[in-house]
Amino acid sequence: MKTAERLRAREHWSQRGLSVKEIARLLAVSQSSVSAWVRDIELTVEQRQALLSRNPAFNAQAKGSKTRARRALAERLGYQTDGRAMASARDPEFVAGCMLFWAEGSRERNAVKFTNSDPEMMSFFMGFLRRHFGVSDEMVSVWCNLFADQDQSRRGMEQFWLDTLELPRSSLGKSTVNVYSKYSGKFRKNMLPYGTCRVAVYCTRIVQMLYGAIQELAGFDRPYWATMTRSVPTSMSPY
Question: What is the pTM of this model?
Answer without folding.
Answer: 0.69
